[in-house]
């Protein structure tokens, strides 16, 4: 099939690469000329395992362009994968979706299906249909389908090629038939429903995971108070198939471009119907507090951060990505800088993006050892393999005071004891 994808971000680019891998011809459109130029030169603008290889392997079936009109004109299916950022009140900014819909409506010269893959509030499919009708230039029939995406950054390629399900929200058998032509080569299970239900699946699923994280973080907090060990608790819980072990890792809260925004959007959506989603409200509040939990713990060791040498390991909101959007590290670094600390950071993938947030305020280090040398305190915000595998004894050897506050439980308590460091983690006893 001839497919166009609007947006070459984390979702659009992975979608384009995977559809090409399955034999489709894909034109991937982005308004960011720099991103498109990079892609045309064979480089990926984002760090995502396996993506660059897939782009190279399928380059004959992939086209990158800023010319939306040319890409949409003759496409059988156009997938909208542009950003849907949050507004200050928690609602969703649909500006980019509206622009893409308008461009498609003006360009389309044959019947086609527009599949909305961006995460959008329930009812947006109807709105996209209206925007298309208002701007349509040619007598063509354009069907709008909801096709939410469930990939996780860091494992996005695998998540898309071997997804647990393809959700299609369709309003006609014809649209369903076309979308199945797109996805049949993946040989994955389908959930076919109406558009609004499909839109709701995405929020209900994402927010459920956020709830799970906040729940286990609260259990971890109580574990610390009563002397239980969260790692053992979650091992015992996770083996129950009704619970499952995924998203049961205690830490310093969720971040990224999805959970924070989607929890707020679902809460806002329900509030618009005069319904307060109390579980979601609680999950959001717990997360906000959890994010700066380590700072509060650090305050029990030092009176202030002013003039202290502080090492920060891990900037991205999770390992395997260069994305720092809404990462807990940002909120923590902001507090440290505000209070006058000298901050030295290390991250294997996120430093380029971090430089757009903190230019000269922090020192970017090329190794973990460089970041922690002579530090008074070390914070760990992301569980990168490089950090997990770092010799824990080096903290004692290189830091001025070996005080390590680990928000992702990267080390065993035994290894911390043997290393002779002061070690605070989440949901586990303090080592000192
Ligand atoms: P992103 O910010 O990485 O990418 C969006 C891209 O769209 C940008 O490159 C931007 O330049 C481009 N764009 C904006 N307007 C455009 C237009 N009119 N035409 C073409 N391109 C345009 O965003 P993302 O992380 O890929 O997320 C996209 C959507 O998918 C969001 O709704 C998000 O909630 C959802 N989603 C994201 C993830 C994730 O893990 N990132 C997972 C599932 C769903």
TrEMBL record:
Q: Which UniProt keywords apply?
A: NAD, Oxidoreductase
EC code: 1.1.1.22
Location of the UDP-glucose/GDP-mannose dehydrogenase C-terminal domain: 311-413
Entries under SMART domains matching the protein? UDPG_MGDP_dh_C (SM00984)
Gene3D superfamilies, from UniProt?
Answer: Cytochrome c1, transmembrane anchor, C-terminal (1.20.5.100), NAD(P)-binding Rossmann-like Domain (3.40.50.720)
What is the uppermost EC class here?
oxidoreductase
Q: Name one GO molecular function term.
A: UDP-glucose 6-dehydrogenase activity
Q: Does the keyword NAD apply?
A: yes
The residues that hold substrate are 202, 247-251, 255, 318
Q: Which parts of the sequence bind NAD(+)?
A: 30, 35, 84, 119, 261, 325
Give the family this protein belongs to, as stated in its UniProt record: Belongs to the UDP-glucose/GDP-mannose dehydrogenase family.
Protein name, entry field: UDP-glucose 6-dehydrogenase
């Amino acid at each position: 099939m001839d497919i166009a994808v609007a947006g070459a971000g984390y979702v659009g680019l992975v979608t384009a690469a995977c559809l090409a891998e399955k034999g489709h011809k894909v034109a991937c459109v982005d308004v960011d000329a720099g991103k498109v130029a990079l892609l045309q030169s064979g480089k990926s603008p984002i760090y995502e395992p396996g993506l660059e290889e897939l782009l190279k392997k399928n380059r004959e079936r992939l086209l990158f362009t800023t010319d939306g009109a040319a890409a949409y004109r003759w496409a059988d299916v156009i997938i909208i994968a542009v950003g849907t950022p949050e507004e200050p009140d928690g609602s969703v900014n649909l500006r980019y979706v509206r622009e893409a819909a308008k461009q498609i409506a003006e360009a389309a010269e044959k019947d086609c299906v527009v599949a909305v893959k961006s995460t959008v509030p329930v009812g947006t499919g109807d709105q996209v249909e209206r925007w298309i009708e208002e701007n349509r230039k040619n007598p063509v029939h354009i069907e709008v389908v909801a096709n939410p995406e469930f990939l996780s950054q860091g494992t996005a390629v695998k998540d898309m090629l071997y997804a647990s399900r393809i959700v299609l929200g369709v309003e006609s058998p014809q649209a369903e038939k076309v979308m199945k032509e797109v996805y049949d080569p993946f040989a994955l299970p389908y959930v076919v429903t109406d558009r609004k239900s499909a839109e709701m699946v995405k929020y209900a699923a994402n927010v459920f995971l956020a709830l799970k994280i906040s729940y286990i973080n609260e259990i971890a907090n109580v574990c610390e108070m009563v002397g239980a060990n969260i790692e053992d608790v979650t091992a015992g819980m996770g083996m129950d198939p009704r619970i499952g072990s995924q998203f049961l890792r205690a830490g310093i809260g969720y971040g990224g471009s999805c959970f924070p925004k989607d929890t707020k959007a679902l809460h806002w959506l329900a509030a618009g119907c005069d319904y307060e989603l109390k579980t979601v409200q609680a999950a959001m509040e717990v997360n906000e507090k959890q994010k700066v939990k380590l700072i509060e713990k650090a305050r029990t060791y030092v009176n202030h951060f002013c003039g202290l040498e502080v090492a920060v390991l891990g900037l991205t909101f999770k390992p395997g990505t260069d994305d720092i959007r809404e990462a807990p590290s940002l909120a923590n670094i902001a507090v440290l800088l505000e209070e006058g600390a000298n901050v030295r950071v290390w991250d294997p993938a996120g430093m380029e993006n971090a430089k757009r947030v903190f230019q000269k305020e922090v020192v970017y280090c090329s190794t973990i050892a460089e970041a922690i040398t002579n530090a008074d305190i070390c914070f760990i915000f992301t569980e990168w393999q490089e950090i997990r595998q770092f010799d824990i004894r080096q903290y004692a050897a290189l830091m001025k005071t070996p005080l390590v506050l680990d928000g992702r439980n990267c080390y065993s308590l035994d290894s911390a004891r043997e290393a002779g460091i002061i070690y605070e983690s989440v949901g586990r006893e303090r080592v000192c």
